[in-house]
Amino acid sequence: MKYTNDELAIRLWDTEHVRHTMNRMCYYLTNRDYRGCLNDLWVKANRRSASLGYNNGFYVGMDAIAQHWVLEQPASHKADGSAAMFTLTTPLIKIHGDGKTAQYQGYMPGFQSTANGDGTLQTYMTLDMCFADLIKEDGCWKIWHLILMHDHTMEAGKPYGKTPTFGWEDPIAPEFGTPTVARELHDPCFGWEVLYDDMPRELDTYVEKYSYGPDGDFGKRYFERDKR
User: Fold this and answer.
1) What is the pLDDT of residues 64-103, one digit of tens each?
2) Distance CA 28, CA 36 (A)
3) CA pair distance 8, 16, nearest whole angstrom
4) Are 162 and 40 in contact (CB under 8 A)?
5) What is the Cα–Cα distance from 215 to 220, expressed in whole angstroms?
6) Burial 58-76 (b: 16+ CB within 10 A, else e)
């Protein structure tokens, strides 16, 4: 699409505001302030179609997301001595042609430390990928569909090369809970085999099929989706 200089300036600022929204999300997740994240950064007008995805499926609707993030938050997240850090790097941001919706992708390295109660910590470095659909509500970019794809967990002080490829129970996986829409979105054993098809694209407008919500193609195998 061709844009006027004024439209290009708006789109440049939109790109920055999308990036700022996602960066702010990292501070909320790091502080385990899930309620604040939902209240400040997520959609209001599109609550019913909002979604949060993990490797094993989607929580659909703000009520289900809040139930998982706020009410079912693991006790280990609140324990004294526990800590976490989430970051986002190498963002790929695409504003759709009508300027009303956008897509985001970024790599998400971080760590989690859980207090054992005996003065020791269980500490892991985590490697994730983040995908999001954002929508403009009252002139502000809000998170609409979020997918947090967990890739690798590395235990501090232990050689990662000795972690079995198969049959190893990832200590982070229980945090995914039981999504309302169960579906395998990512299997770390096979890597990002469909990453190219899942990356953000600039479309004329939002298309549900190419979204990061439960009705999109995200996570489907090659033979289950139409090529763009």
Assistant:
1) 999 999 999 877 777 777 889 999 999 999 999 999 999 9
2) 7
3) 13
4) no
5) 11
6) bbbbbebbbebbeeeeeee
Give me 193's structure tokens. 């085999």
Query: CA distances (Å), 108 to each of 61, 71, 126, 147, 202, in order?
Result: 24, 24, 8, 11, 22
pTM of the model as a whole: 0.94
Residue written as tokens 């054993």?
Answer: 189
Provide the Cα torsion 147, 182, 73, 159; round to 10°: -70
| Side chain identity at residue 176, one-letter code | F
Amino acid (one-letter) located at 16 = E
**Residues 134, 104: contact at Cβ < 8 Å?**
yes
pLDDT single digits (tens) 123-169: 999 999 999 999 999 999 999 999 999 998 999 988 888 888 777 88
Q: Would you state the structure tokens that stand for residue 96, as one six-digit string?
A: 């759709």
Distance between CA atoms of 41 and 30, rounded to whole angstroms? Answer: 15
Residue linked to tokens 């190498």: 90
